[in-house]
Write a structure and sequence with these properties.
heterodimer, A: alpha+beta, 7 helices, 4 strands, B: alpha/beta, Rossmann fold, 18 helices
Chain lengths: 160, 424
């Protein structure tokens, strides 16, 4: 790439390595979006355009993919995304109460980010932790049996 | 009781690394099979075992593999894919296998790929399973370093690479043809069948897609034989399966039990029955896409055939308990919210029908329902019946609605009549 690349050398190398796992460059597009999102937290328009170019896709083709998948963020999110399960067992075991509790502690609703940019809260489908419902992902950490005491521990700066 | 699938798994501990796994007898089948016995012999053992697909359908695995054209008739790339998308609400069995014993899955992939002569394998793991992805990648690295993967594995002349593909969300990725589109870097929208993936799958090449648990069975079948595998089951079924329960039972969790174990035995003996103060109202036997089952049916053996005979599906075998203090209308509304949200939008009946179902249920929940709404919902179960939509997502959504309307008619009518929920 030329000097005006937005992506870092590490990101460019990472994408090249991902492409090597598939017979077509395009097949690496979801992996590439995830790789770039890892540090940047979300996929801005100019970043999307550069990845599309690298993979030989049109911007529209890549955006079509990016907007389909809920774990690709096309808007800024907080440092830590809290994904609280809203599927059936967690619903039954009190996830709505937990959601209200988190909302109150962080003063945000679903889809919002705290003013300090630390947390974004979103609902998610079943996390495969139903035997420890209610469950959530905090960043990459799976947490089960979420209750007020767990939240005190996980969100110490925002005690209820 | 034998539990081959979970014998190495100790909950809340790191899985066996390569050394520990081999010490426990792991990879012996690979050492004894590759280049020493004919791939067709491995395939034959799987056919004879009676193993059924654990992704929810129970389709005979051996027969699926036999449907792939031979290398002679179709030279060129062939793919073997493990479906680890596990997003069916109430299902938490594949995560146990991925995190608990990744080398078991790798051993299964090597044998399966050898049987169908595929040299490329992908493990499609849902993006939220961060720990599973990391542990699988680590185990694949160990196996590569030991010459169990790569070119000319153990001098057998057989090559295999496995790549872990982490998903980026969306339940529909679990539908096998939508999964193929996702792996090709497209929106996860199902493809028309035929052609089946065995004929034209990933990048147009012959492709097998199997569930994680299905493939974890393969090393045990190859090691001990089809006869042994069949003998593990009860009530005419073969092998063991990871069953599970969530909801208000004393010990929610996963249980590896003989296929064909009666549902009642799992709930009452293994899961310790209902929590004090709660009674069982009904249950979904195997995830959100299965139909409700009532207490008087609990003696049904947990096998694909026994559930099909009852007009229901065993699904993923992880049951969700609906207790007497949880509102059935709210429970069903939650399920329909999931399906409406996860519809891929490709075909109109599902894309437009499911949100309509969801809204109707929400209005009944909110006390704004009318009795005619129940007729509308019944009509929708017909509009979205099997064969009327492009894939099985919408018919799966209708399973709990159809049975729910039949079993909980009184509760629905009471909601509409009283304009409020008696349970909240
Ligand atoms: C909407 C939908 C979601 C599915 N999700 C999964 C899944 O997460 N994991 C899975 O193994 N199979 C899933 N399936 C079934 C697959 O399409 C396919 O039948 C299965 O992976 C085949 O493997 P098996 O024969 O080993 O069961 C899903 C099917 C549908 C219609
Ligand atoms: S039934 Fe639903 S999920 Fe399946 S193809 Fe149609 S719109 Fe997509
Ligand atoms: S329903 Fe919430 S983790 Fe499964």
């Amino acid at each position: 790439m030329t000097a005006k690349s937005i992506l870092t050398a590490a990101e460019l190398d990472g994408i090249a390595a991902l492409i090597s796992h598939y017979p077509t460059a395009r097949a690496a597009c979801i992996d590439s979006l995830k790789l770039v999102q890892e540090k940047r937290r979300y996929i801005a328009d100019d970043v999307l355009a550069e990845i599309a170019h690298l993979l030989g896709m049109s911007v529209a083709e890549l955006d079509e993919v990016a907007t389909f998948y809920n774990l690709i963020y096309r808007q800024p999110v907080g440092e830590t995304v809290i994904l609280l399960c809203d599927s059936v067992t967690c619903w039954m075991m009190g996830r709505n109460q937990v959601a209200a509790d988190i909302s109150k502690r962080l003063a945000i609703k679903d889809g919002e980010t705290t003013a300090d940019g630390k947390y974004t809260m979103l609902p998610i489908v079943c996390l495969g932790h139903c035997d420890h419902a209610p469950a959530m992902l905090m960043g990459k950490t799976l947490v089960g049996n979420v209750d007020a005491a767990q939240l005190d521990r996980l969100l110490p700066e925002a005690r209820a | 009781m034998k539990r081959p699938l979970t014998k190495n798994i100790i909950v809340n501990q790191m899985p066996f690394d390569l050394v520990a796994y081999e010490r426990a007898g792991g990879y012996q089948t690979v050492r004894q099979s590759l280049g020493k016995i004919d791939p067709d012999a491995v395939l034959a053992a799987v056919v004879d075992s009676g193993l059924g697909g654990c992704g929810g359908g129970g389709f005979p695995t051996g027969r699926k593999w036999q449907a792939m054209p031979s290398v002679a008739t179709r030279p060129g790339p062939r793919y073997f894919i493990v479906n680890a998308d596990e997003m069916e609400p109430g299902t938490f069995k594949d995560r146990l296998l991925l995190e608990g014993d990744p080398h078991q899955l790798i051993e299964g992939i090597i044998l399966s790929a050898y049987a169908v002569q595929a040299n490329h394998a992908y493990v499609f793991i849902r993006g939220e399973y961060h720990r599973a992805i990391a542990l699988m990648e680590q185990a694949i690295g160990e196996a590569e370093a030991a010459g169990l993967l790569g070119d000319n594995i153990l001098g057998s002349g057989f090559n295999l690479i496995i790549h872990v593909h982490g998903g980026a969300g969306r339940y529909i990725c679990g539908e096998e043809t939508a999964l193929l589109n996702s792996l090709e870097g497209r929106r996860a929208i199902p493809r028309s069948k035929p052609p089946l993936p065995m004929i034209s799958g990933l990048f147009g090449a012959p492709t097998i897609v199997n569930n994680v648990e299905t493939i974890c069975n393969i090393p045990h079948i190859v090691a001990n034989g089809a006869e042994w595998f069949r003998s593990l089951g009860r009530n005419g079924a073969a092998g063991t399966k990871i069953f599970g329960v969530s909801g208000r039972v004393n010990r929610p969790g996963t249980y590896e039990l003989p296929m064909g174990t009666p549902m009642r035995e799992m709930i009452e003996e293994h899961a310790g029955g209902m929590k004090p103060g709660y009674a069982l109202r009904a249950l979904l036997p195997g995830g959100a896409s299965t139909g409700f089952m009532l207490e008087n049916d609990l003696d049904t053996p947990m096998s694909f055939a026994a559930f099909a005979a009852k007009g229901n599906r065993l699904g993923t075998g992880t049951a969700i308990i609906l207790d007497d203090k949880t509102c059935p209308v709210g429970f069903i509304a939650n399920l329909q919210h999931f399906f409406a949200q996860e519809s891929c939008g490709w075909c109109a009946p599902c894309r437009d029908g499911l949100p309509w179902v969801e809204q109707t249920l929400k209005s009944i929940e909110a006390g704004e329902g009318k009795l005619e709404d129940l007729d509308l919902l019944t009509e929708m179960t017909d509009t979205l019946a099997p064969g009327r939509t492009f894939c099985a997502l919408a018919p799966g959504a209708m399973a709990s609605l159809t049975t729910g309307l039949a079993y909980f008619r009184d509760e629905f009518e009471r909601h509409i009549r009283d304009g409020e929920c008696p349970w909240t």
